[in-house]
Hints:
Blueprint: E1 4-7, H1 14-25, E2 30-34, H2 42-45, E3 49-51, H3 57-67, E4 71-74, H4 80-85, H5 87-108, E5 111-113, E6 116-117, H6 141-160, E7 163-165, E8 167-169, E9 171-173, H7 186-196, E10 199-202, E11 210-214, H8 215-227, E12 239-240, E13 244-246, H9 248-256, E14 263-266, H10 270-277, H11 286-292, H12 300-319
Parallel strand pairs: 1-2, 1-4, 2-3, 4-5, 5-7, 6-8, 8-12, 9-11, 10-14
Antiparallel strand pairs: 11-13
Bound molecules: nicotinamide-adenine-dinucleotide.
Amino acid sequence: MKKILVTGALGQIGSELVMKMRDSYGADNVIATDIRRIEDNKVVQSGPFEILDVTDAKAMADIARSYQVDTIIHLAALLSATAEAKPLLAWNLNMGGLLNALEVARELKCQFFTPSSIGAFGPSTPKENTPQDTIQRPTTMYGVNKVSGELLCDYYYHKFGVDTRGLRFPGLISYVTPPGGGTTDYAVEIYYDAIKKGTYTSYIAQGTYMDMMYMPDALNAIIQLMEADPSKLKHRNAFNVTAMSVEPEDFRAAIQKHIPEFTMDYAVDPVRQAIADSWPNSIDATAAKEEWGFQAEFDLQKMTSDMLTKLREKFFQQIG
Ligand code: NAD
């Protein structure tokens, strides 16, 4: 990774990944792009930034050529809950954008990364300790896109020799940029509301287990996989990765250790609950551990402590 193009760079993952990669690889070597521009954003201010709609194949190829990139990190996508509300837009963006990015990677011989998701699994997938290789018949548009994307990336590797790599991310929890319309967003909102209001109303039902991971672990996983010895990778494009399998009550208990007066109730959203019910309770990350040494540093307690500290600092700075 010497000259890296990032799409969807102002989103939840991109806004932190770009800054971390600019630290490691040099600010000028990470070209951030997004369909929108936010002037007072660190990503826009700290290095090259271009407006790019990933459904515009020519614009993407022009930017990649002009910066002579050797790596593409493709993050632009519509997430699970939004994709269910706008399935045609999701197909066009998630599949069209991915195909355009893969074509640029093929033409310019770039290394390539794009995330898949636990949404690539469905109701007929084994729910507990979901294996790396298993049944994938998702019932959401997002899931259909993610399975297709995993297969498309495999195809570009086998057919054209593009060095494609990817992770099946669980719900990602972070404090820098709010999440963009996923089913696991409650696990971020709960921390914001715990600090701002002292109470949270969960749209996901009690007892609904899903995998989660703290953003620093997700960023490390991306970079570690991209730098991994390719000869060791058997599952290039869809490594299960996770740090914890948790339900809303686990977050309540963890937050109450720091804020004893914190309360939580439920107003379940049937659409997002149905998506959550179709996903695994816990996934098995053995392949990622064995093939490139994946290890998550943050469990629920450590993440909760860090999230609350960082959010308090953030709100204090905003008020100050
Ligand atoms: P996000 O919604 O926070 O950010 C997506 C970004 O893409 C936004 O900045 C948006 O402006 C941009 N975008 C939208 N349409 C675009 C277009 N046509 N052209 C260019 N940019 C466009 O998403 P994220 O959470 O950063 O997710 C990035 C990737 O990771 C996605 O593929 C997502 O499916 C995957 N993922 C995320 C999570 C999670 O919990 N955040 C979990 C699993 C997988």
